Amino acid sequence: MRFFARPATDLRRLTGWPALAALLAVVIVHGRVSPVRADGELVVKARARLTDLETVARGTRVEVAGTLRDNLGQPVARERLEIRLDDAPPALATSDASGRFLVRLVARAEGARTVHVRFPGSALLGAAEAGGQVTVGRTSVLLTFDAPSEVEAALPLAFEVRATDSGGVPQTALAVKLTVDGTDLPPTTTGPDGRARWALRPLSRGRHLLVATAAADDLHLGATASHTVTIWSPLALTLDPLPERLAPGESLVADGSLEGAEGESVPIVLTIDGEPLGGTSTAAGGTWRITVSGAVLPVGRIEVRAMAAPTTPGFRPTFSERQFVEVLAPPPPSVAWVLVPVCLGAVAAGLAGWRRRAPAVRPATAPDGSGAVSPPAFARAAATPDPALRVEVRDAVTLKPVPGAVCRLLGGPADGPEVSVTADDVGRARLSGIGETLAVDAEGYAPARHACPVPPGGAVVVHLLTRRARIQACHEELLRVAGRPVLRFGRETPAQSAHALRERGAPGELVDAFTAAVERGCFGPAEPGPEDLSAVEAAGDALRVFFDATSPAVRRGARS
Predict the structure, then answer these.
(1) Helix/strand/coil (H, E, C) string of 61-73?
(2) Rounded to whole angstroms, how far apart are CA atoms 145 and 228?
(3) How deeply is 368 buried, as exposed, middle or buried, from its count of CB atoms within 10 A (0-12, 13-18, 19+)?
(4) What is the distance, to the nearest Å, from the Cα of residue 253 to the centroid of all Cα atoms in its chain?
């Protein structure tokens, strides 16, 4: 309230100096005003108040709002205020008709910050200040693909990318950019549910890499997510009609064709009652033929089915229709045919005992007649793929199940648990997990390691060799590398092998170590242990390196 000099003089003339002094004292005490004298004028200012102060941080942006009032609580309009963060230069704001003011600031750094609001004062109001604390920080964003991993060729690819914070709250109005195999697509903004959606035209066959990126801004931190999708083409596998019956010992010849491979060579596996017993690859025209020896065919009604197991991206395993064949049993042998093998076996056993040499322990004959079990073929269904890997463990000599075998998946994620399952009483195990190598170990057998599909899935039959049979196989393989004709193991003694290896120039200490390990592992009083197998393999590897580096001419010269 302002009193000019002339009205004050008139009031003094009417009431006198005592009444004027009493009036000023009442105004100062009850009205909270401050008298100031300037240029002959008496100026009385009320105190200003900053009320309803609100500070909201959105990322690195800070909004400060409040109301400017006088000492009676009435809003004060059209007055300037100064607002700043920490020691940054102040921003100016003007109160509106209701005394409200609002200013938006940008923080220089994240973390706890101090807000200062100051009203410098005016002709009628004194100065006022207020402040508070605010935490400034951008929101971390997590991008997640909701997209299929496999899509059939010629079909469009529709998928979503979900954007959330660390607590799972959807982030709306966030620009997300998509890159397909290094090619950028126009960005898409997330909707109210925090999802950005795309519908791409059909992609080419093979694997494609999708990368979603949300750039950092004042409210959010940057984020990136990737996803791999495989575009596959359907294959049509045909198995020609098979004979209804097979004579005893007759081989099974299966012919067929594969369409849709676009000239690529695709492996074909023939399964008998669900077990792979033969394999080949398609010819130029997609045709194929597999012959299975009648010696490995079970007697009775068998189920025959072909499977295409492509190894290149863009094709899925495909099965043919099932067919059934009746394998006839051989006629019962006569008495003469029974007595002759018994007599010959007795003579052979006597000679073997006399020579103190055990008979050869060899794997069952493979379908291709090579005399060794074929490498396992992983079969994976195309229509309803099983995410678990089904493993069946058998003895390579007797083809009987091996119960208690430990099956493991190796080469999985470094921070993930190791997948290990023990086979049941019929030698079967089921593994669910991620890994690059299937490892199978069993008591009394040599360990087996095989590369498996990634991710694992389907079925596989693994044949294990006993340690003694494995030592015999290492012995015969080394003789082949040295150029020595391999005799039957029961007649080829380690001493004779040592003589043949020395003739071909092999170092004597390596030969002695190898033959001693073979003698101990195969002809010792006890079954060979893991250390015996390791000794044979280490000495055999050293000799194999020697013979690989030695030319055949040098070997012949050493022998002469």
Answers:
(1) EEEEEEEEECCCC
(2) 10
(3) middle
(4) 41
Q: What is the arithmetic mean of pLDDT over 226-244? A: 90
SS3 content of the chain, % helix, strand, coil (to 5): 20, 40, 40
**CA–CA dist 532, 518 (Å, integer):** 8
* Of 435, 433, 464, 427, the residue nearest 451 (C-alpha): 435
Query: Rounded CA gap, 119 and 539, in Å?
Result: 92
Q: Which helix (H) or strand (E) holds 122?
A: none
Torsion of CA 306, 312, 313, 319, to 10 degrees: 0
Q: How far apart are CA 143 and CA 194, in angstroms?
A: 10
Residue 181 pLDDT more than 80?
yes
Spatial CA neighbour of 293 closest among 326, 250, 334, 335: 250
> Is 46 in a helix, a strand, or coil?
strand
Strand partners, 64: 55, 103
**Cα end-to-end distance, the chain, whole Å:** 131
36: CB partners within 8 A, 6+ apart: 42, 43, 44, 45
DSSP state of 221: -
Residues with Cβ within 8 Å of 393's Cβ and at least 6 positions away in sequence, in order, are 401, 402, 405, 407, 423, 427, 428, 429, 440, 442, 461, 462, 464
- Residues 72-118 have pLDDT tens digits of 889 999 999 999 988 788 889 999 999 999 998 888 777 788 899 99
Contacts 24+ apart (CB under 8 A), 329-337: 329/248, 329/299, 329/300, 330/248, 330/249, 331/248
The Cα–Cα gap between 544 and 480 comes to 10
Instruction: Record the tokens describing residue 278, joined without a space.
Output: 């033969």
Q: What are phi and psi of 113, to 5 degrees?
A: -130, 155
pTM, rounded to two decimals: 0.41
Per-residue confidence at 191, pLDDT binned at 50, 70, 90? very high
Of 141, 188, 184, which is closest to residue 160 (Cα–Cα)? 188
**Kind and range of the H or E element at 532?**
helix 530-548
Distance between CA atoms of residues 472 and 479, nearest Å: 11
| Predicted local confidence at residue 5, as pLDDT | 44
Check: CB of residue 233 under 8 Å from CB of residue 315: yes
Of residues 190, 247, 253, the one with CA closest to residue 223: 190
